[in-house]
Amino acid sequence: MEEADRIVQQLKTKVLECAKGFGLPEDHLEEVCQAILGGEPLYTIVGMDRSSIEARYALASQCYQVGKYSDAEPIFRWLCMYEGNAERNWLGLAATLQAEKKYEEAREMYQITALMSGLENPAPFYYSGICFLRENNSEDAVTAFQTVLTLGDSSNREHAVLIDRAKALLKSLTKADAWACADGNRVRFSRDVSCKHKWFWMN
Asked: Which of 62, 136, 161, 165 is the most exposed place for a label (fewest CB within 10 A)?
């Protein structure tokens, strides 16, 4: 619970900074933050059109897919501020940071994504495990992959893919090819920008 409170406070601080930068009166910042924490995104509070959010998400996803991570990162950060209640934005930022080899920060973003899903989506834990592997931290990687097995629902097609890959990585962690197994795992986003969030495998 302490970790969840810490992340909520971190989100609150970032939201306040963003709202302040947008020029909102200082005496309204706390009110704005409470509205956002209550589920209302910042872009609606400042009167921004929904189409601008979708356009930016499409652009960020396209940049990610073609390997332009340095272009995708600031757009996903912007989306996380202005539509902070959308899980897809945090997943996009986490995946981009992971691709940029900023593994520690990527794991923090995956933590936020996991909390937003109500700890029902095993994907953030799987990708966190991949980050741990890339950092040569097999102990925490094992914990992350075991969490995937605990949270994953084998009757869910997307969960089943992660469960199978987590099992394979757990099995291979005692072998020399564990690093190679982690090398091919990268998040890919749906072209359908209307979806809440979507991930696929890119081999």
From this structure: 136
Question: What would you report as the CA-atom Rg of the chain, rounded to the nearest whole angstrom?
Answer: 17
What's residue 3's pLDDT? 57
Residue 141 has what pLDDT?
94
Is residue 14 classed as helix, strand or coil in its secondary structure? helix
- Phi and psi, residue 137, nearest 5°: -110, 80
- 49-201 homologous superfamily: Tetratricopeptide repeat domain (1.25.40.10)
Burial 10-41 (b: 16+ CB within 10 A, else e): ebbeebbebbeeeebeeeebeebbebbeeeeb
Give the three-state DSSP class for 137.
coil
Q: For residue 142, give the nearest of 113, 115, 183, 172 by alpha carbon.
A: 172
In the predicted model, what is the mean pLDDT of residues 160-170? 94
Mean pLDDT of 144-155: 93
